[in-house]
Amino acid sequence: MSWTREDMVRRAAAELRDGDVVNLGIGLPTEVANFVPPEIAVTLHSENGLLGMGPFPDEDHVDPQIINAGKQTVTMLPGASTFDSALSFAMIRGGHVDLAVLGGLEVACNGDLANWTVPGKLITGMGGAMDLAAGARRVVVLQTHVAKDGGAKLVSRLTLPVTALGCVRRVITELGVFDAAGDHFVCVERAPGVEPAEIERTTGARVVFAVSRRRPEPEDG
Amino acid sequence: MSEGGARGKAGAPAGGKVRPDAGTALDGLRDGMTILSGGFGLCGIAEHCIAEIARRGVRNLTVVSNNCGNQGQGLAILLKTRQIRKVVCSFVGGNPDLADQYLAGTVEVELSPQGTLAERIRAGGAGLGGFYTPTGVGTIVADGKEAREIDGRRYVLERPLRGDFAIVRAAVGDRMGNLRFYRTARSFNPLMAMAARITVAEVDKLVDAGALDPDDVHLPGIFVHRIFEAREHKNAVEFRTTREAGSRA
Predict the structure, then answer these.
(1) Residues paired with A204 in a beta bridge
(2) Which chain A positions have a beta carbon within 8 Å of B243's beta carbon?
(3) What is the pTM of this model?
(4) β-strands B163-174, B34-37 pairing
(5) pLDDT per residue over B142-159, tens digit each?
(6) For a disulfide at A179, which of A29, A160, A186, B148, Cβ 3.0-4.6 Å?
(7) Average pLDDT value over all residues in chain B
(8) Domain region containing A137
(9) Contact at 8 Å (CB) between B203 and B181?
């Protein structure tokens, strides 16, 4: 039994450290905000120009001019600040953002990331993905272990266009947690009931299993 | 142009910077010009300026903007009217008008990573010849660009962007052109304002000089050449997400 999407998001939230400034990518990573451990404080950065982003507003407090980088309406927490896009990306490239949790299409075991385009599909543009991948102090990717067609997404070498080189520290999938270690991945956790053989079969690079025991179940709440 | 030169006057001339509406504020806009447009998606865009550009029907425009509108609104209006020849942006997702015309080959798209786009515009306004950024190293963005290693890290040279007109939106502006923005409607607006020969500011509220405290000015009036008040805006929301609907936080 592998992790559910919520389990994956909870596991990604366990990567947050007290005092971190965190940028959450569009899609599944955005949901990490809902599972910040109560004993720590993190500050959410949105690259369109907001530090101290809060949750979605309630129906009575929607402000069309307070949005996140996914163009969703959000709120600002006490102590928030707003700024222009150049300053926002100075924060990112300048190494002031501690952690970026991003979606992925492919991650190579040397840390290379592809997450912005698939040739032949409709172009979407990289938005802030290249800046975040190249600039955040630590990059964690949250993605499914294999593509919809069953192809490996953890690979020895990227086949898709690069977002940034050597940037990914850790990948969280429904099968476990994997660290980029140069010429192989290190599996540091396995989801409950997932055997090493299944991981080896579905991974396009060598995997070294650092632990035989899986991490305890994430707690509810 | 009414300023009588290649660029707008940065100081407030005797006739003033204030214009009655977008129509007069965009005097001198011609076919083939480059327009820098502030905002992020549909947030913080100069709606009245965009409507006026559509009304004028000028063509073969190059538009520099993080997104070229979305969901048929904002700058996508100028795609529908086939007035745009080239778009410089970071993101085209959710914009069927742009996707269709790009695939048909009628609109050229130059993609720039969002932070690189912002800094290119800032560099244009700040008089810089470009800058070295780590963003895009090893990607198609770096193709054909000078790369170099500085203190052990690899960088790619990105060039500045400038425009003929900038259309920006601010919450408050005074007669000197000083601007104050609101929330995340700021985004690209102050940057675009810096990098154009003629910057037109569309403000929700126009006040007298002195009404804005100097310490509260986000963008000094030196970057703004024409200003007009527009009280009504659509302020369209692309994704209305609320606590009940989308989050348990």
Answers:
(1) A155
(2) 55-58
(3) 0.94
(4) parallel
(5) 999 999 999 999 999 999
(6) A186
(7) 94
(8) 5-209
(9) no
Check if B239 contacts A (Cβ < 8 Å).
yes
- Measured over the CA atoms of residue B212, residue B213, residue B214 and residue B218, the dihedral's sign is negative
**In CATH, what number is assigned to the domain containing residue A122?**
3.40.1080.10
pLDDT in tens, B173-207: 999 999 999 999 999 999 999 999 999 999 999 99
Q: Looking at the domain B22-133+145-228, which fold is it? A: Glutaconate Coenzyme A-transferase (3.40.1080)
Of A57, A88, A161, the CB nearest to B139: A161
Q: Quote the DSSP letter at residue B42.
A: T
Strand, coil or helix: A164: strand
User: Taking every pair of C-alpha atoms in chain A, what is the biggest distance, in angstroms?
Assistant: 52
Q: Does any CB of chain B come closer than 8 Å to the CB of residue A131?
A: yes
Other C-beta atoms within 10 Å of B7: how many? 13
In chain A, residues with a C-beta closer than 8 Å to the C-beta of B44 are 65
Within a domain: residue A109? yes
For A132, phi then psi, to 5°, come to -65, -45
The answer, yes or no, to whether residue B8 has pLDDT greater than 90, is no
**Closest CB to B239 among A72, A93, A112:** A72
If you count them, how many residues does chain B have?
A: 249
Looking at the structure of chain A, the number of domains it has is: 1
